[in-house]
Specification:
Elements: H1 2-10, H2 15-27, H3 31-38, E1 57-60, E2 63-66, E3 71-72, E4 75-81, E5 84-88, E6 93-94, E7 98-106, E8 109-114, E9 118-127, E10 130-134, E11 147-156, E12 159-164
Parallel strand pairs: 1-4, 2-5, 3-6, 4-7, 5-8, 7-11, 8-12, 9-11, 10-12
Helix pairs in contact: 1-2
């Protein structure tokens, strides 16, 4: 309610939008409902954490994606069975300094997007599959990583790929001619 009032005071919300959102906020029963009401008003660091009902991700003949602010448990199973899974850890909160992801890709693909400053260690078995880690070099080789993501893989005709999140190419105020 405070965030909605501040947004109305700053002019980010009209009085009718404020009244409507306040009414929906009072009727909200879950954190997810509140997050939808304020998602366009704050920076990602101020957003509530997204709560997922399961502690694992499974994509069977489907696509699954986790992104935004969410808590990554210290041990996290991920399975892609003829499907695709994307885990965007750019804004995620790591539950511990070392997170172990158990990645199983059977004719599917698992893609991890890791923020800069987090080291990725990939180990496991691959049969007719692909395992890769692509990361951008750190500014200084002497700076230790702020966390480690260990990926234990089993790929059977699938792929497990980890990449460092890209920096935006466009900068405000600068244009190419």
């Amino acid at each position: 309610m405070t965030l909605l009032s501040e947004a109305a005071g700053d002019g980010r919300l009209s009085l009718s939008e404020h009244a409507e959102r306040s009414e929906r906020a009072l009727a909200a029963r879950t954190l997810g409902e509140l997050a939808r009401l304020t998602s366009d008003l704050t920076l990602p660091s101020g957003q509530p954490i997204q709560l997922y009902p399961r502690r694992s991700v499974t994509a069977m003949f489907a696509r699954e994606r986790r992104q935004g602010r969410w808590v990554v448990p210290s041990a996290f199973p991920v399975t892609a069975f003829f499907g695709d899974v994307v885990l965007d850890l750019s804004d995620a909160i790591l539950q511990s300094q070392r997170v172990t992801i158990y990645a199983t890709a059977i004719a599917g693909q698992i893609k991890l997007i890791v923020p800069a400053g987090i080291a990725v260690e990939m180990a496991g078995r691959s049969v007719l599959g692909v395992r890769s880690v692509r990361s951008q070099p750190r500014a200084s080789a002497h700076v230790p990583p702020s966390g480690v993501i260990e990926v234990r893989t089993l790929t059977l005709g699938g792929a497990v790929k980890a990449t460092t999140a890209r920096r935006p190419r466009w900068r405000l105020g600068s244009r190419r001619r």
